[in-house]
Amino acid sequence: MLTSLSIAVRLWASLVTGLLSTLALAQGVSVTDSWVRATVAGQQATGAFMKLTASQALRLVQAGSPVAGLVEIHEMRMDKDVMRMSAIPGLDLPAGRSVELKPGGYHVMLMQLKQQIKDGETVPITLTFQAPDGRKETLEVKALARMLSQPSKHGH
User: Fold this and answer.
1) Regarding beta strands 122-130 and 58-64, do their DSSP bridges make them parallel or antiparallel, or are they unpaired?
2) Domains and CATH numbers, the chain
3) Rounded to two decimals, what is the model's pTM?
């Protein structure tokens, strides 16, 4: 027979377990070297780049930013002798291995820009990750805008 104390303990344990699993997912991704290519006036699209390292297997499934009307995860690949860029539904992040989003490879594409992205500005980007069990969690990234020719500034 369950007493009110044992019911309370079970509810508390269930709540703590759920909270810890959510925190593990939210804190399970390290983002380094995040940056966005600065634009010129009137430019409608740019790319965001970074290194993602997940402590557990995850999938980057969505991205968003208030500076863009449309944000997609993209890949660039050679198709015969032509470089092609296309949206992909997600990007797998193997546990413990760094995945680099870089020019000429995987990246986050910011389109329908609402403003010029100026060198030195900070661009907020929200990344959504999905765990193998279907749970989703978001992570806010502050990416520094810079010209392509500038050296990378390490850190987050």
Assistant:
1) antiparallel
2) 4-146 (2.60.40.1890)
3) 0.78
